[in-house]
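Predict structure. Chain length: 99.
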Amino acid sequence: MSAKAGRKEHPISMRLPEADIAMIDRAAVLRGRSRTDFVRETAVRAAEDVLMENRLIRMSPEGFAQFTAVLSAPAAAVPEMTELAQRPAPWESGYAPKR
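Prediction complete.
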C-alpha cells in the first residue's frame, strides 16, 4: 500500500483576489505559519465557533430553574478585582519605568 492510498486529507481549492492572498500571507507570516496552515487553522476555528453558537443545550425544568436563579442572584464581590479596580492606573501614579 502506498503512502498516498492511506492518506486521509482532502484538498480544498479556492480562487481569491490578489489582495486577499496578500492579507492572508501577511497574517500567516505574523503568526509564523505557512499560508496553508494559517488558512486551515483559521477556517477550523471559525467552523468550531459557528457550531458552538448553534449547539442546543437541554436541561430539566429543575435545572433551568437553578440556572436562572444563579443568573438572577446578586453578583458576589471578588476581593482581588475590587483591589485592582481601586489602584491608580500606572499613568496616574507618577511611576515611569527606567529605560
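Summary: The two ends are 62 Å apart (CA to CA).
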